[in-house]
Every structure is written in C-alpha cells, then in structure tokens.
C-alpha cells in the first residue's frame, strides 16, 4: 500500500468518525437545549428509536434524544471508527465472533424483557450498546477504508472510459 493510499484510507475513516461524533453528541444535547431545538432533535431521532423516557439516560431530569441502548450503540460505533482510523493496519477486519458475542448480550437483555423478567438498568444497557457499537464501528471502518482505497487507486466506482480501438455495441 502506497503512502497516498494509506492517507486516503485513514483520512476517510477519520472524516466519517468526525461526522459520527457530531451526530452522537447531537443526540446527547437535548437536556442542555431549549425546548424547541430539543424537540427538533428528538423528532429527527424518532424513526430510529422508541425514545421511552424511562429507558433513556437522564441529565438533570431530562432524557437524551434516544434510549440508553441506542446512545450506547452510537457512542460505541463512533469509538470503533476512531479506533480503526488510529490503530488498525490496512486490510484489518475484526473477527465476526466479536460481533456475535456483543450482539448476543444485547439480545439476551431484550429477551429478558420479552419473557417478562427484569431488564437491565439504563447504564448497563448503554454499556452493552457501547460494546456492540464499537465492534460495528470497526466493521464500518473496514468498509470505509476499502472504499477510500479504491478511490485512491482510481477505481471510484465509475465505468472505465472506452478505448479508442473498441467497437461500439450499437
């Protein structure tokens, strides 16, 4: 891998990680904002989360824009992207078993609720989300780096230009 390819690969992962950071921080902002802006953020986050206040992390008595598990997933995904950008070697792919283990713990928590058993409190639920999200972030970093590598090598998904001696299919 050339220096240019490595720069593109890490640079795009860092850019996506920066966007993920801004998104995650935005989801945590409603307790600090006036009612109008907080309502807009909650409305924009509503398609991806049930937003039950009793399932959300509270700051000064106000819930975040998404539930504890979702904010954990977003925060973990962001951390996973940053970790990939700074620590992963080119071509690194996390073991699938990491994802299955992290996902399994979240499924167990959801299953407890379906069976009528007590769920985990919000902080442990958020921490389970962080673990799962971090592994997802590593996988996302792998994909983003692969896309950047193709761009750096001049294969950005466009069709190659026809050569002068190729015949038309018309």
Structure description:
With 170 residues, the protein is an all-alpha fold. It has one domain (3-152). It has helices spanning 3-28, 35-45, 68-87, 96-114, 122-152, and strands spanning 58-59, 62-63. The chain has a two-stranded antiparallel ribbon with strand order 1-2. A hairpin with a 2-residue loop joins strand 1 and strand 2. The longest helix is centred in the C-terminal third of the chain and has 31 residues, at 122-152.
Give the topology, please:
Blueprint (H helix, E strand, L loop, with lengths): L2 H26 L6 H11 L12 E2 L2 E2 L4 H20 L8 H19 L7 H31 L18
Antiparallel strand pairs: 1-2
Please state the overall shape, judged from the principal axes of the Cα atoms: flat
SS-based class: mainly alpha
Order of helices and strands: HHEEHHH
In which order are the strands of the major sheet placed? 1-2
> Helical segment tally?
5
Largest sheet: 2 strands, antiparallel
> How many extended strands?
2
Tell me the number of structural domains.
1
Query: Gyration radius, to the nearest Å?
Result: 21 Å
Give the helix level as a range of percent.
55-70%
Provide the residue-averaged pLDDT.
88
User: Ranges with pLDDT <50 over ≥5 residues?
Assistant: 159-163, 165-170
Q: What percent strand?
A: under 5%
Distance N to C terminus: 40 Å
């Amino acid at each position: 891998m050339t220096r240019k390819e490595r720069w593109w690969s890490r640079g795009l992962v860092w850019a996506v990680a920066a966007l993920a950071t801004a998104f995650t921080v935005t989801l945590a902002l409603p307790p600090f904002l006036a009612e109008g802006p907080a309502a807009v953020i909650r409305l924009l986050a509503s398609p991806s989360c049930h937003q039950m206040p009793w399932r959300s992390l509270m700051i000064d008595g106000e819930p975040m824009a998404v539930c504890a598990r979702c904010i954990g997933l977003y925060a973990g995904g962001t951390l996973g992207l940053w970790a990939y950008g700074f620590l992963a070697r080119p071509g690194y792919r996390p073991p699938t078993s990491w994802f299955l283990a992290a996902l399994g713990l979240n499924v167990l928590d959801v299953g407890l609720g379906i069976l009528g058993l007590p769920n985990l409190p919000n902080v442990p639920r958020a921490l389970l989300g962080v673990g799962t999200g971090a592994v997802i972030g590593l996988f996302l970093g792998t994909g983003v780096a692969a896309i950047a590598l193709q761009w750096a090598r001049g294969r950005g998904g466009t069709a190659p230009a026809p050569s002068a001696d190729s015949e038309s299919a018309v």
